[in-house]
Model the fold of this input.
Amino acid sequence: AKSAGRRTYMRYDDAMDVSIRKRAILSGALRKALDHDEFRLVYQPRLALDSSAIVGVEALLRWNGAEHGAVPPDEFIPLAEESGQILEIGEWVLREACLALRRWQQHGLAGLSMAVNVSVLQLLRGNFPEVVRRILEDARLDPRSLELELTESVLMANAGQTAEKLLALRKLGVSLAIDDFGTGYSSLAYLKRLPITTLKIDKAFIRDVTTDPEDAAITSTIITMAHSLGLRVVAEGVETEAQMRFLVGQNCDEIQGFWLARPLEAHACLAFMRGRAPQ
Ligand code: C2E
Ligand code: CA
Ligand code: CA
Ligand code: CA
Done:
């Protein structure tokens, strides 16, 4: 199965004649990006609806290239996946995110979880659970404070091997979320078969949730189903108070989106979380 990222890229590719040339140029620049310190992470806070507490953040990768300026992740991550560079980049992301959480803990913020996006290649190549274990140990983090976000296509890619890796990660204590839930073609059977802890409802369903009865029905059904399977539900792309209220009414567990906060630089995220901490 192709990854969602790859599908995104192919659509982009079809739409633009220059894209093959642009892609080759970007690929070359991407190869130097790690060495040249061109990556950084931003962090988007997540809010628990029952307690109104900030319970964690999602780390999102940014590339500001010397030659190309800011390139959106939807453009460069598929390239990094095709070239295999995502392995090295993904490991950098994990380490950087864990160290940021560790620093925030040292600033007195407890009980936060860090969500990190993981590509299929990272999960399947090498000994990923061991890589994760070592990074957590180096950062002196409780594995329960790390959540890995995987897309549905990841779970379909290589069922047997995937299940084995996910089990090893769960044994470490790490949480496992399905990202962009509802957009894949896969059967729901994997929810029973795999040790998933969290579903993230794709922002495509949230956008019109207060005006489109079908999106409302899909969203409320996902939440009910997830809860009956013992899973936590995060809604992403929440941009308005009305969307937030709808999700409160449906007993959604957490929200993430511009209504609460945009992805923030580490220092701004720390300030935001401190400002919201119970006094
Ligand atoms: P995603 O994992 O689904 O991340 C959520 C995306 O939605 C982010 O886009 C975020 O900035 C954006 N977003 C957050 N709140 C809102 C909102 O209220 N409204 C709208 N319209 N958008 C919102 P971003 O940062 O451009 O990332 C795009 C995608 O790139 C991510 O989608 C993820 O699939 C991928 N990505 C980002 N960082 C990494 C990474 O470190 N590793 C991997 N493998 N993929 C990553
Ligand atoms: Ca994500
Ligand atoms: Ca998502
Ligand atoms: Ca996505």
About this structure: The mean pLDDT is 91. The longest helix spans residues 86-106. The longest strand covers residues 54-65. Strands lie at 39-48, 54-65, 69-71, 113-117, 146-151, 175-181, 198-201, 232-235, 254-255.
